Give the backbone structure.
Amino acid sequence: MPSKSFIKLIFLLLFLSIGPASIAFLYTRTGGLESRREIHFHKTLRYIFMSNVESVDLQTLTDWPWETVCIFNSNTSEDQVNSLIGFNYENYSQLTWVHLSDHWTFLFIDKIRETNWGMHRPVIAIRVPFYEIARYDGPKGGKCVSSEDANLLIRRGGFSKDSSPIFATISEK
């Protein structure tokens, strides 16, 4: 019969192993935790949707610099994203939600600039969950629009208890 201290050690090790397993589950099922930018962007989107407008200037929804915005649906491969945005997006592997069928993505792309580690092009990725925020209503291969012309188009569909009645895409003004 094992001692009480050995049994306590086993339970402690089992308890500590739950943390990494739950983090792995979180990232594979939900794409990981939302960033502060995503949370703020989603909150602002919900306010826009409640205002009953059909389109809004996409620049008014962001507080960071960007030149181009691109949208694409889930299951878009790295090659398809690179083709869409016109350069090699090195952080594609950080889009942990791109394989999930219930999310779509905004990429806000800024101009190349000098940073401490050399020339860098900032890209801010924002995921949008189908069920909680809005469904993707864009072209199958995705679309990119310049910041001056970026307009978020909003269409409302029928009510369903399992998904958002909002459909969103971008277009040029």
Remarks:
- The mean pLDDT is 87.
- The helical segments are 4-30, 36-50, 78-85.
- The CA atoms of residues 55 and 153 lie 4 Å apart.
- The radius of gyration is 20 Å.
